[in-house]
Amino acid sequence: MHASVKNISDEQILSFLKEQKSAEKGFRLLMQKYQERLYFQIRRLVLAHDDANDVTQNTFIKVFRNIHNFKGDSKLYTWLYRIATNEAITFLNKKKKKATTSLDSDDNLLANQLEADPYFDGDEAQIRLEKALTTLPNKQRVVFNMRYYDELSYKEMSEVLKTSEGALKASYHHAVKKIEAFFLGRGSA
Amino acid sequence: MSKNDEIKKELEEVSPFLANLEKANPFKVPVNYFDSLSDDLASELFAKEEQSISPERKRSWLDGIINNFAALFTPRYAFGLASLLVLLIAGMLFFNDSSTPMLAMEDLSSDEMQEYVNNNLDDFDEEMIMQIAAEEFKLDVFETIEEKELDSYIENFIDELDESELEELL
Questions:
Q1: Residue ranges covered by each domain of chain B
Q2: Dist. CA A114–CA A94, nearest whole Å
């Protein structure tokens, strides 16, 4: 992230975005401030760099086209996070539909993609963890990633996913148990 | 307790195994990826936005109609259009020709009409004849006959028949 961008407030970026003459400047600042966080959030769901690149770009285009719908009820990043998550899940669902017509299952497709990706250099345990994650339902993966990797509180997760904190806690615990079972060979996660 | 400590403690309680697993980011990106991402996307997006509001690209519905009309006079469509016009003019001349003798009903005698009907009786089915008669005499053939009247008509009709006629009917 550009050092100077860190000091720019969300309010400043939004005011640039909402004026036609400064919209491009606002868009560049918005991307520079949040692209990295959003990219990795998306990447952990779609796994391959090329897919993450596409989904990240679509997310920012959608954000720009719908910026007038952002009323400031939540933090800007919460809103961006929600759009990125929805875009990634939509992408995964489309991919799953395509995979059902091929011989390779969706899970195998994602796992194979991971090992072939030149931009993945995890050790064996990390590969196994990612493979375990690909066997979870998409929404459960999102919940696990938010808590485990992004270290969000259940309140923050609830704002993004519009789901009760109790349901999110149950979903996270369930996901953790499934992943553990996958590692210990007690199930297919 | 900080948020991170709370999350770690929760994981230790649910799955000590997973809590001990090293947490790292195994995902990498091409060199200078984030430096060029915003520039590339912003340039592409704002070039498209400018094109979409550019006046040269905005065509009104009237422009569309004029262009389509003008296309009719290009060599590709001209022959077809000319043929259509010739057919239209020929049709108008043929149907509007006042010298064509037209027979009016008033010019026909009742014998001629009767003869025509007799010669073409097959063209008139029962239902059609009843419909024409009803319209001609302003009759509601079935709706005006009540069931009682119909029954008494049939009874009288049967009474008037002699035995031989009745046998014939049966």
A1: 3-56, 59-95, 108-169
A2: 18
